[in-house]
Design a protein that fits this description.
Residues 201-267 form the Signal transduction histidine kinase subgroup 3 dimerisation and phosphoacceptor domain. The protein has helices at 5-37, 51-69, 74-87, 99-112, 119-139, 145-233, 235-264, 284-293, 306-312, 317-337, 378-389, 414-417, and strands at 297-303, 342-348, 354-361, 392-397, 403-410. It is an alpha+beta fold. The longest helix has 89 residues, at 145-233.
Length: 418
């Protein structure tokens, strides 16, 4: 039979009061036995069957009932069970039988309530205990300061000691709870960092895939259109265009393979043809040549020793890859959206603190118009790359109806590299 949690809770609620009642009655019975063996050992204890005996049993029972029934009102419980102590004065030196429930109730209230709010309750309970014990001492024949001291000591024992114990236990529970909350917060923070890292990786993957596919597929689309026009009137030209389509397809597959290898985070590429190529400023010349071969009218202008700057380390590999991808995306956009436009790629490395790249295309050629298209992720990817490398990106239309993209990449002085 499976026990319902509510039944288990009720059983646990009444178990402690029942145990306290048994201990209290047992202590009273032991005091009676001790008094019968030696009347001087436990003075003032009533005889079994006397009215005071049964009255004491009734009071001890009431204490246990209050402890179980008033569990949700710990402060009232402490005062109620402590108020029973003056009623137990007829037990004489056996009055300590009523302190067991007082100790348990005090322990509970300290654990359940802020300590600073319990001073009136604890002082009241201590006073009731002291009065009850002092009255019992007087009934047993005590007098003078002995009565006062006995009442004070019993009050400290019944209220002060459980207060200290419960304070220590409560402080430890608070410390354990604080540690648990800290661990939970750290776990949430770690999960958040993981989610951010995953989103960054997804964004980087999407950006790389967009740049690679957009560039090559734009060239393939342009050359495929040329094939459609040339296949009847210029078969040889159509064959050359098909060969260029094949070259672009092969290049796209190579770039995708390189991207997959980088994402695998392995030192040895799976293809034995060679290591993964990291695009640099020097590779922009090949990029322009590929665009020109695909049919795009594009010129390359350089100012300063581009190859030497690319190899010197004043621009990091990530910044050089960003520059390559920005030029690649700008040329792809020109081929895709401004047919017949003439493009100019300019690389200027003469400045001491930055390298400037500029991709500019004119308005579409005669009879051509800007291609309508939905907003894509090309410009977003450019901006993300610039922010990642500390570069400055600017883009927008030109006065002659064209479009211009400018990228300024900060450089590191060669003295710092040494």
């Amino acid at each position: 039979m499976i026990e319902h949690p509510a039944q288990h809770g009720r059983r646990a609620t009444y178990l402690v009061p029942a145990v306290c009642w048994l201990l209290s009655v047992g202590l009273l019975a032991a005091s009676l036995g001790l008094n019968q063996a030696d009347p001087s050992a436990a003075r003032g204890v009533p005889e079994f069957g006397d009215a005071a005996w049964w009255g004491a049993i009734a009071v001890l029972t009431a204490q246990a009932v209050v402890l179980g029934v008033w569990r949700g009102h710990p402060r009232a419980t402490v005062l109620a069970v402590a108020a029973a102590m003056p009623a137990l004065q007829w037990l004489g030196e056996a009055v300590g039988a009523g302190l067991i429930v007082v100790i348990v109730a005090t322990y509970r209230v300290v654990l359940a309530r802020p300590v600073r709010r319990l001073a009136p309750t604890l002082l009241g309970a201590g006073a009731l205990v002291a009065v009850g014990v002092a009255a019992a001492e007087i009934r047993s024949g005590g007098e003078g300061w002995t009565v006062v001291i006995a009442g004070a000591l019993q009050a400290v024992a019944a209220v002060g000691l459980p207060f200290v114990l419960a304070s220590v236990v409560g402080a430890r529970q608070d410390a354990v709870a604080a540690v648990a909350r800290t661990v939970e917060a750290q776990g949430r923070e770690r999960d958040a960092l993981v989610r951010v890292a995953v989103e960054r990786e997804r964004t980087a993957m999407a950006r790389e895939l967009h740049d690679i596919a957009a560039h090559h597929l734009s060239g393939i689309a342009v050359m495929s259109a040329a094939v459609g026009r040339q296949i009847d009137v210029d078969p040889e030209g159509a064959k050359r265009a098909v060969a260029q389509v094949r070259e672009q397809s092969t290049a796209m597959l190579r770039d995708l393979r390189n991207l997959v290898v980088l994402l695998r985070d392995t030192e040895d590429p799976p293809d034995p043809d060679g290591p993964v190529r990291m695009e640099t400023l020097a590779g922009i010349a090949d990029l322009v040549a590929q665009a020109r071969a695909s049919g795009l009218e594009v010129d390359l202008e350089t100012s300063g020793p581009v190859d030497e700057v690319a190899a010197s380390g004043v621009i990091g590999p990530l910044a050089q890859l960003a520059a390559y991808r920005v030029v690649q995306e700008a040329l792809a956009n020109a081929a895709r959206h401004a047919h017949g436009a003439r493009c100019t790629v300019r690389i200027d490395v003469r400045a001491d603190d930055h390298v400037e790249l500029r991709v500019r295309n004119t308005a579409p050629g005669p009879g051509e118009a800007l291609t309508d298209h939905d907003p894509g992720y090309g410009l977003v990817g450019m901006q993300e790359r610039a922010e990642l490398t500390g570069a400055t990106l600017q883009y927008g239309p030109t006065l002659d109806g064209g479009w211009q993209v400018s990228l300024a990449i900060p450089t590191t002085p060669t003295e710092e590299l040494r």
